[in-house]
């Protein structure tokens, strides 16, 4: 596997469902759990998250959450993903797949 392939794999691991966690993912892995939402905001609130239409902070994303206690780094990340929602998705209803042709003209091909 080349260095480029390794870099692409690392980038894919840092970005999940349109949110690029960057170093935050590693920092959350090092954290002791359980941890409250307030503690997450206090420690990581200024951390920027890259989303498709710009950036936001952990504090901005978690502001709408009530009192919550996280049991693992995955729970923190999932909560962030839930709160970011559609903002993290690029172009809405975009597909890079071809356009479906609904015409009645069906052609038979013989190989």
From TrEMBL:
<feature type="compositionally biased region" description="Acidic residues">
    <location>
        <begin position="1"/>
        <end position="14"/>
    </location>
</feature>
<protein>
    <recommendedName>
        <fullName>DUF2795 domain-containing protein</fullName>
    </recommendedName>
</protein>
<dbReference type="Pfam" id="PF19102">
    <property type="entry name" value="DUF5789"/>
</dbReference>
<feature type="region of interest" description="Disordered">
    <location>
        <begin position="83"/>
        <end position="111"/>
    </location>
</feature>
<dbReference type="InterPro" id="IPR043899">
    <property type="entry name" value="DUF5789"/>
</dbReference>
<feature type="compositionally biased region" description="Basic and acidic residues">
    <location>
        <begin position="93"/>
        <end position="111"/>
    </location>
</feature>
<feature type="region of interest" description="Disordered">
    <location>
        <begin position="1"/>
        <end position="31"/>
    </location>
</feature>
